[in-house]
Amino acid sequence: MSFSRLLLVAANSKKYISGTGNDKVFVKPRSSMPVSGGDLYAGEVVLCFQLDEPGDKGKVARSLDLQEDNKRCDGLIFYAEDDKDDRVICLVEMKSTKVAEVAEQIKVTKDHIDELLRAECYPYCNKQLSQIKWKACFYHQGASPDDVAGVLRQLKKAKFTEVHYCTAANSDIGPFLRDEIRNTKKGSNKYKKSKRK
Q1: Which residues contact 184 (CB under 8 A, 6 or more apart)?
Q2: Structural domain of residue 114, as residue ranges?
Q3: pLDDT in tens, 28-53
């Protein structure tokens, strides 16, 4: 029942995960022009859940059976497209320059949520569980390239399908969720030109 509680407690129309100050990772629409019926997100389901929100008195974390002192990342983004079977669960951590704990926070959150999903959905949703694409993203404000590369490596070892990072200059996570970004061998992020609009 944890995910049912998460929807009841924390579902909202926000399309971002926030950090300290004005730091945010956004899920911007594919296009600034509405597709059908005025909906900028037509054909997409985007749900952003702030897991580490000081002002909510721990309600969101408790809905996922996370205790106050449990390590966890800042946000969870659920993403799906109408014409695709796979679902994306992207875990997001917001940091400034100190990124040493990012991979552990995201991995611990993934392990916990994966366990909850399997307990809540087994045996009725095995096919859907196998179609989840676990993605990880972190935001930083000037961490060293070596530190960023290290976090990306750790996240890949933690069996995330895709890993990514955002900065203040590039805080749109939408292309990553939509598979419009591929990770190069060096860990830098490149857009797939064929899909970018």
Answers
A1: 190
A2: 2-29+41-191
A3: 998 777 666 678 888 999 999 998 87
